[in-house]
Amino acid sequence: MIKKKDTLEISNLHANIGDLKILNGINLTIKSGEIHAIMGPNGSGKSTLCNVLMGHPKYEVTKGSAKFNGKEILDLEPNERAHLGLFLGFQHPLEISGVSTGTFLRLAKNLSLKANGETKQISPMEFMPILKQTMGLLKMDEKFITRSVNEGFSGGEKKRAEIVQMAILEPKIAMLDEIDSGLDIDALKIVAEGINETLKKTGLGVLLITHYQRLLNYITPDFVHVMAKGKIIKSGDKKLAKELEKNGYEEILKKAK
Ligand SMILES: Nc1ncnc2c1ncn2[C@@H]1O[C@H](COP(=O)(O)OP(=O)(O)OP(=O)(O)O)[C@@H](O)[C@H]1O
Ligand SMILES: [Mg+2]
Question: For residue 30, what are the CA distances in angstroms to 2, 66, 180?
Fold first, then answer.
């Protein structure tokens, strides 16, 4: 059930790495319950947009703003952004050796509860059934609970684990960067189901980065945007993704020049 409309409003966002300009004026507003898909050629800045919004220190924001429910987030630490309700499912999830997945998720959840004024913390005993149920939804074996975060996980297992993390943390706005890459045909459906379930349960807003229309057959986007050279050059609805699949980017890129 959607209780409250949360809004992430990105205005004229510019960002660099060193002297290299990567984002050149992004304007995008994402609200609770909305699914925005971003497609676009390799190297157009899609992952950069996610990283900048989450606060990766490598990038320098040179212009523009990103407001979450009216509050500027670009000067906050990544953990503060996470506690407000932003989540990033990585294109390339990192492996964290020596930290078990179960403990990592429980501690992250408890930190998030605490940061949001909850005095109650979830004990390992209380957490286990919640985690098992969530992993069950993503058809992940329970043995992953005791394995180190992402260590030695296959590409597809890492992507499922990102969605388990999202389902546990219940963010308000989730950015999912190529969550479909590396997934086999069945896993694609399972991951999409996991995203749809979380959407139904929490009403979060989703920014879905993908190269393939295929994922959008399972998760219906409200908006589809095309990004090129650090800008959104075209926006439309799900028909736009079908058009891109058929015709590629050439025409759209030419028109945007
Ligand atoms: N540390 C860096 N040094 C130099 N260039 C970088 C660095 N990080 C990113 N870039 C460049 O920034 C551009 C945007 O990269 P980004 O990863 O955001 O693209 P993307 O749209 O996510 O591409 P893909 O679809 O391949 O994932 C690329 O040309 C990339 O090479
Ligand atoms: Mg990328």
Answer: 15, 11, 21
Tell me the C-alpha to C-alpha distance, in Å, between residue 166 and each of 50, 68, 138. Answer: 15, 18, 12
Helix (H) or strand (E) holding 205: strand 205-209
Best mutation site among 17, 208, 211 for ligand 1, i.e. most ligand atoms within 8 A of its Cβ?
Answer: 17
Residue ranges covered by each domain of the chain: 7-256
Question: Once rounded to an integer, what is the mean pLDDT over residues 128-151?
Answer: 97
Tokens of residue 183, six digits:
């997934």
Residue of 19, 22, 52, 54 with the most ligand 1 atoms within 8 Å of its CB, for mutation: 22
The pTM of this model reads: 0.95
Distance (angstroms) between ligand 1 centre and the Cα of 52 equals 12
Measured by CA distance, the residue closest to atom 24 of ligand 1 is 42
Q: Which ligand is nearest to the CA of 230?
A: 1
What's the pLDDT tens digit per position in 76-105?
Answer: 999 999 999 999 999 999 999 999 999 999
CATH of segment(s) 7-256: 3.40.50.300
Closest C-alpha to 215, from 174, 176, 248, 254: 176
Going from the Cα of 49 to the center of ligand 1, the distance in angstroms, rounded, reads: 10
